[in-house]
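Posting for a labmate who doesn't have an account.
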Amino acid sequence: MPLTMPDHRPPCPAGAGPTSGPPIGFLRLAARLTGAGRLRAGLLGCGLLRCGLIGFGLLATLGGCGASGPDEPGGPVRLAVLGDSITAGFGLPRDQAFPARVQHQLTAQGWIIEVVNAGRSGDTMADGLTRLQRVIDGAPDVVVVALGGNDGMRGRPPADIEDDLDRIVTRLTERGIDVGIVGVNHPALVRRNGYDDFPGLFRRVAERHGVPLLDDMLHGVVGDPSAMRDLVHPNAVGQQRIADRVARWLLEHDLLRAD
């Protein structure tokens, strides 16, 4: 059975619509309000139509009303997950893939968040770099990079994978987009090709750029038949476990509270 199977569904919103998220900060909100399509929604979400231009005027109103978290509702945080078949939810309805489950879970906690599933089966880190501009064009506030498994399975040189990941993170951070990295340490994907320290390439890039790292996406999933549909791909149970870890990680590292 091939470990990489085709799935050409395009990236799309992981959930049905905006859910919930924490304070975005004045610079983040101001940048988002520059888009004409979001101006009216941003004004409404920020309460400008109710608050009026008083006190410190528009600047103060934006700064004071721009939060979008459990205690301070506002405009949605837009998070994109750049990944492969695991992110895409191979073999499952889109709403059972972990990005959709993360959105559902955080919404239930009071966050206003839209999670975009930018997963595509078979993608390597180089493929992710190639289609990165499409993700950037979607104006995300945060991007989680969840690639590398197919690179390991195909035996790509670690230095090449690390370079591609470094370039992805560099392009995102240069545009003021917050980044998190999800690493890979799956024996069926990497150890069979004789890698000495495959997880190290994710750690080094995360340390160089000062971005959060979730060590192994499939921790607690691989090896449990109740959570896997085959040797590589989680079933709905496994996808929910991934979502639980990713949601906790996002909150622990304040990735949804970018200024």
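Reply:
Got it, the structure tokens are right above this. The chain is about 45% helix and 10% strand.
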